[in-house]
Design brief:
Length: 136
């Protein structure tokens, strides 16, 4: 097997979860339209099921495309790498300790005030519960 494109794009857990939901909906729609089950790879179905269950336990289940977009825009002012932004969106850190674990050489690159600002952006743009939404 030959890899044609090494990395086309980074995907957040939210995007992967939405894709799994769309695949399941498409599969159900195809069965409803034809009235019969087409060949379904059981291994693929098992992996999709397990992946969906795993992702539903993470912050991705409560995220929206708008929240991900808004947080990404807010993080642009900081010199974070794409991978660091992705990890922040996926992990949705709640404390400075969690944020330190996600950002490489955090102490050298950011002061405490900047890190607190990043956390504030995360909390305002990507709240854990719907009743926490301020202006996300």
């Amino acid at each position: 097997m030959k890899v044609l494109i090494k990395r086309d794009a980074f995907l957040t857990n939210y995007e992967v979860l939405r894709h799994i939901y769309e695949e399941e909906l498409q599969k159900k729609h195809n069965i409803d339209n034809t009235g019969s089950k087409q060949f379904i790879n059981e291994n693929l179905s098992t992996i999709q099921f397990q992946l969906r269950k795993y992702l539903e336990e993470l912050p991705a289940k409560k995220q929206s495309a708008k929240q991900v977009c808004n947080l990404t825009k807010e993080l642009e002012i900081y010199s974070l790498t794409k991978a660091e932004k992705l990890m922040i969106i996926n992990a949705r850190p709640d404390t400075l300790v969690e944020l330190y674990a996600l950002i490489e050489e955090c102490e050298e690159r950011f002061n405490l005030e900047q890190l607190q600002q990043i956390l504030d952006h995360i909390h305002s743009k990507m709240p854990l519960d719907s009743h926490e939404i301020l202006d996300a």
